[in-house]
Each structure stands twice: as structure tokens, then as C-alpha cells.
Amino acid sequence: METNKxxxxxxxxxxxxxxxxxxxxxxxxxxxxxQTPLEIANMEKHLAAGDWKSLRATAHKMKxxxxxxxxxxxxxxxxxxxDYAANEKNLDLLPGLILKVKEVCTQAIEELVQEKxxxx
Length: 120
Prior knowledge:
This protein has helices at 12-18, 22-49, 52-68, 72-87, 94-115. The chain is elongated and about 45 Å long. It is an all-alpha fold. It has one domain (12-113): Four Helix Bundle (Hemerythrin (Met), subunit A) (Up-down Bundle). The chain has 5 helices and no strands. It is 75% helix and 0% strand.
């Protein structure tokens, strides 16, 4: 495992939310790991179709999960995607922003899959 990689997730907030329930933490991690790749695929699909309303809605739906998993780097990025899609501005920047979400989420999912067993 690379030690120079920046850790993308911080489960502090999720642990606070869970009130000590490891079952809740495992459930939230599981949902994130399963749903996030689907939501990213949806964003890519909406981008390709120029469906800005659906892209905005998908980005909006993803925001809380980044907060729960402590993925600080993406909180601003996903808000920017939401804003650009809602206002149909800076559309040329959306592919790069969505790619950033995909890259960071891929790493975050790897981290969460490794961390999940400690809560089982």
C-alpha cells in the first residue's frame, strides 16, 4: 500500500452520528461503496446527454454522503457541479470536475472497504 497517498476519508463525523452503533457505520459504508459508483455513472450519463437538471439533482443527492464519510476534498467540488449544472454555466469544466469526483471516490471506496472490518 502506498503510504504517500492522502487519506480521503475521515469517519469522525460518521462515528459521532452513529452514537456508538457499529452496525450503523457498517450500513453507511456499505451504502456508500455500493451506491457511489452508480451515482458517478449517472452523472457521466447526464453530462453526455446534456441533461443539466438531472446532473444537478444527482450531484445534490451525493453531497450528504461526502459529509458522512468525511471526504472534505469533494464537498466543494460536488457543490460546484451542482451550481454549474443548475445555472448551465461553465459546462466545459464539468467533465474535469466529475472526473475528480470519480478519482477521489475510487480511492475513498478502497479506504472504506479496508476500514469496514474493524466495525464488524
